[in-house]
Design a protein that fits this description.
This protein has two domains: about 160 residues, Rossmann fold; about 200 residues, Glycogen Phosphorylase B (Rossmann fold, 3-Layer(aba) Sandwich). About 35% of the residues lie in helices and about 15% in strands. The protein has a seven-stranded mixed sheet, with helices on both faces. The two termini are about 35 Å apart.
Length: about 375
């Protein structure tokens, strides 16, 4: 499998012969892939995308913190061969053994930067960039950011807003953007929750004589979309998520919306919404024993896996679960978001500061100030 070499438009790494060679071992979840690309683009160094296809048995290598490629279907993956990179940026437990294998082949020269929650100890990486829900202990190789890294920039918003505009300019203003996620851990986005969110979003748009710009995601079920849509009476534009769709209007919706409603299951989507500087409203999902919004007893759509996950959160090791409520509380306490049904506030739009801190820490690995 050929891998593209991406050269950013504004490289800022110093002399050309000193520019680090960067590989992105891309994540297998959309949020992880977005964070990896956001960091790489912000660094401004040319990079290569390495996409890997994993065997079902890969967990054995990951579980025991191996350093090999036994879990990878090599003939269906990007080539991993010299010249070895100076830097590997990755995310996800499956990619950890691959990063260690690459570093070993480079004679220990390759730096490893991991985004999210690592399975191995932070000592096995040069830098871990994480967020509150993973509850990692303080460590000199761990950068604790408030929100996930994101690809929201003024330039991208302006460009994507213009692309989407012809499809929605007939709809009445103001625009309320609605970003729908899906099931996550103990939280379920089912028909009951979809109905509640749709009714509240519909009411908001009605009161403003405006319209809704709606985007689903990879985790939004068909049943949820149908239920959500059946409760809308206001003018709306609804995008049904499709894999590898170059016309995906997600960033366009972020750009054109005057305010945003985001289901609170996705910390990545919340971070992207906050980075726009628009008023952000979080729509809570019901969860067994772990309500997102402590002051509300939200009705729960039954899901056996969700119930099982709540037991893991209660009785299992912390490293096997995450608590996204920690991020919710931080956003509310900092005035960056409110819960659906509360008065909207104007956020500060300082979501890029986390990305700047991450860039500084990565550049410091190579002696750049």
């Amino acid at each position: 499998m050929n891998q593209p070499v991406i050269t950013p438009s504004d490289p800022a790494a110093g002399p050309d012969d000193a520019t680090p060679r960067v590989w992105l071992v891309t994540g297998y979840r959309a949020g992880e892939r977005g964070q990896i690309l956001a960091l790489a683009e912000a660094l401004g160094w040319p990079f290569e995308l390495k996409t890997l296809n994993y065997r079902k048995s890969e967990f054995r290598t990951s579980l025991f913190r191996g350093s090999d490629l036994r879990g990878v279907r090599l003939h269906e993956s990007s080539e991993l061969k010299p010249p070895w990179p100076d830097l590997v940026i990755s995310a996800g437990m499956r990619n950890e053994p691959v990063g260690r294998w690459i570093r070993a082949r480079s004679g220990g020269r390759t730096r490893l930067v991991h985004i999210g929650r690592p399975w191995a100890s932070p000592d096995r990486f040069d830098l871990v960039i994480t967020t509150p829900q993973y509850r990692l202990a303080e460590h000199d190789r761990v950068l604790q950011n408030a929100m996930p890294l994101n690809q929201v920039t003024p330039e991208r918003l302006a460009e994507q807003g213009q692309v989407l505009l012809p499809r929605v300019e007939h709809l009445p203003h103001p625009y309320t953007g609605v970003i729908l996620g899906g099931n996550s851990g103990p939280y379920t986005l089912g028909p009951k929750t979809a109905t509640r969110i749709a009714q509240q979003a519909n009411r908001m748009a009605t009161e403003q004589n405006g319209s809704l710009l709606i985007s689903t995601s990879a985790r939004t079920s068909k049943r949820v979309v149908e239920e959500f849509q059946s409760h809308l009476t206001v003018p709306n534009y609804l995008y049904h998520w499709q894999a590898d769709d170059e016309s995906n209007p997600y960033f366009g919706i972020l750009a054109l919306s005057d305010e945003l409603i985001v289901t609170a299951d996705s910390i990545s989507m919340l971070g992207e919404a906050c980075a726009t500087g628009k008023p952000v409203t979080m729509a809570e999902l019901g969860g067994y024993g772990y309500p997102m919004r402590l002051e509300c007893n939200t009705e729960v759509d039954f899901r056996l896996i969700g119930l099982t996950y709540s037991w893991i959160m209660r009785f299992g090791p912390l490293r096997l679960s995450r608590d996204i409520r920690l991020v919710h509380r931080q956003l509310v306490s900092e005035g960056r978001a409110v819960w659906l049904g509360q008065p909207a506030i104007q956020t500060s739009g300082d979501g890029l500061s986390d990305l700047s801190r991450a860039v500084q820490r990565v550049r410091a690995l190579f002696g750049y100030a």
